[in-house]
From TrEMBL:
The gene is Mettl22. GO terms for cellular component: nucleus. Keywords: Methyltransferase, Transferase. One of its GO terms (molecular function) is protein methyltransferase activity. This is Methyltransferase-like protein 22. Residues 14-33 are annotated as: Disordered. Gene3D superfamilies: Vaccinia Virus protein VP39 (3.40.50.150). Pfam families: Methyltransf_16.
């Protein structure tokens, strides 16, 4: 069975078209046809295989992420007819994504992590899951199909938190979890303090594609340390794509941000060892693919467990 998630994304259309990766798709499902007729959407195929619905009149972009629903989940959890509805109002279209607002598009790590969640659904079922730097919230939407509660967070810049709220609303028919959208800013741990009561039963943390500059990576790891130091014991899953660049200095292709991330993992392992027993491991990436995107060998998944020692 195929399901569709609707993700409003004000910036992806122009980015895709600039890269010349947009083509016309004739593969619109019936609800898409309805949207096209009612809302004058043009249907385009996005870089990750998603159908991008673009309304020139309304300057609105919606991405449809079709995915195969895992048969075991189908049997346990869902009626086959409960496809999500579309709410196409309200997204502003802007010309480009600045580095500051990189959250307002779906990165491949988000789809990779969403596949992992669907494949290992038991890890997430009935849990309170927290996602950091969630961007438009696609991974959280998938986790919310299984979890009992999902706290979706990002830095409060641009309209990202509002966009997450709208995307959760768009897909509410497939969500099981109670949802909460709040700010966590890696550079401002007061935002974590503000969530203390909310976070007291979080046992799983998610992050996708949060590693693209070194200062942010440092801030990310100090946030991870902070979040994982408090009870209850937590497990974190981090999906990322190693981004290779050719440097004259190395005369080779290197992935400096990923190297820096590995250093960050080492740093984390050495923190608060009197209080925390860390387990850090890279997970195999050969789990089933349900979403459509290029599953490159540069996509990696790390698991961190923080077992809290008795005082
Ligand atoms: C490359 S995007 C990934 C978004 C999403 N996880 C995905 O994979 O599609 C990086 C994310 O980091 C977030 N971010 C940037 N600075 C941050 C900060 N100081 N604290 C928390 N998140 C931040 C961005 O808003 C953005 O959502």
């Amino acid at each position: 069975m195929a399901l569709t998630l609707k993700i409003g994304n004000p910036r992806s259309y122009r980015n895709l078209s600039e890269k010349g990766e947009v083509g016309t798709s004739s593969d619109l499902g019936c609800e898409g046809q309805q949207e096209q007729e009612d809302e004058e959407f043009e249907c385009l195929l996005g870089a990750n295989g998603q159908v991008v619905l673009w309304s020139p009149r309304r300057e609105t972009v919606l991405s449809r992420f079709d995915f195969a629903y895992p048969p075991d989940l189908q049997a346990q959890d869902r009626s086959p007819n409960s496809c999500p509805q579309v709410d196409s109002d309200g997204d502003l279209h802007q010309n480009a994504t600045t580095l500051d607002l990189v959250g307002e598009q779906v990165w491949r790590g988000a789809l990779f992590l969403a596949d992992f969640i669907l494949h290992y659904s038991d890890i997430f079922r009935g849990k309170h899951v927290l996602e950091v730097a969630s961007g438009v919230g696609l991974t959280s939407v998938v986790a919310a199909m299984l979890a009992i509660k999902i706290t979706v967070t990002d830095v409060d810049k641009g309209e990202i938190l509002e966009l997450i709220r709208r995307n959760l609303k768009r897909n509410e028919d497939v969500l099981k979890a109670e949802v909460c959208v709040k700010e966590i800013d890696f550079y401002n741990h007061d935002t974590i303090d503000d969530l203390q009561a909310n976070n007291k039963d979080v046992s799983v943390i998610l992050a996708a594609d949060v590693v693209y500059n070194n200062p942010l990576t440092d801030a990310f790891f100090s946030t991870v340390l902070r979040l994982m130091s408090d009870p209850p014991e937590k497990t974190m899953f981090i999906a990322l794509e190693k981004r290779y660049v050719f440097t004259m200095e190395d005369m080779d292709s290197v992935a400096p941000c990923y190297e820096y991330f590995l250093d960050g993992l080492e740093w984390l392992r050495s923190q608060r060892t009197d209080h925390i027993e860390w387990t850090v491991e890279e997970l195999p990436s050969d789990f089933e693919q349900y979403f459509t995107y290029e599953r490159t060998r540069h996509l990696v998944l790390w698991k961190i467990n923080a077992k809290l020692k008795q005082p």
